[in-house]
Design brief:
Elements: H1 5-17, H2 22-36, H3 45-58, H4 64-71, H5 78-85, H6 92-99, H7 110-120, H8 124-134, E1 137-142, E2 148-154, E3 158-170, E4 186-187, E5 197-198, E6 202-206, E7 209-212, E8 216-218, E9 225-231, E10 247-258
Antiparallel strand pairs: 1-10, 2-9, 3-8, 3-10, 4-5, 6-7, 6-9
Helix pairs in contact: 1-2, 1-3, 3-5, 4-6, 5-7, 6-8, 7-8
Amino acid sequence: MNIEPGMFSQLLEQQKRQGQPSTVAVRSVLDIISQLRGNPRALDMADLKTFIQVAVASCQDLSLLDYARLLRPYSKSISELAQALYPIAPNAAELVVALLDVSVYPQTRETEMREVLVSCGYSRNDIDQALRLNYPKTVIVQANRPWQDMDITVGEGEKAVIQYVSGWWFISPQLPRCDANGGPRRIQLPDYALPGYPEGGLVGRINKQAFWVGSHGETPAGLTGQLQLCPNDDLPGSYGVGLADNIGSLTVRVTLKRR
């Protein structure tokens, strides 16, 4: 038998009259209800949905993430929690952010998250966008190729966060190997990918505007379009053999986020 909304509402009001902050009041009521159920820290999905409906009306200062964190200990699965939170989630992307929070379900794989969003009733486009914005893509950047298309599009109001993962490359037989931070020399020659930054470092470009990445970077504000990456080297071969004597590759993780 499901808990009636009136009981949730009455218990919440009692807690609030005692001067409890919303988070404490909500947690106290959840504890009381789960104990009445005879199964501490576990509620079924119908109860979770009912509680959300009542709590949102009484505790308007709590966010979607607050509710995800508060309800996590009482939910039996990510699917049940997601369906309970669905009515108050502005969109699929924000629901995924809440579910992936470190104190909720941070280890959820992309395939499982897709199934969860399908069960909530989101459209395929909404789901694709939500996963695109919350799950990183791992790519390989080759040392001997110029601007390489990563098959990642940065949209309006978004940024790409680029993180070096592993790998080394040699930019010249005369220089030691380096990672995404590049070597000690800062090259000012105009035909380098990004003059004034370390030779051999990882650089990015969108719509022909280059920017420094190194071991960790992000796309500058206002840039939208296809993300490209490459080593900071003499790309056209204006000062020697260019990329022809380069060896190696870097593994990079790219995550799209809202600004």
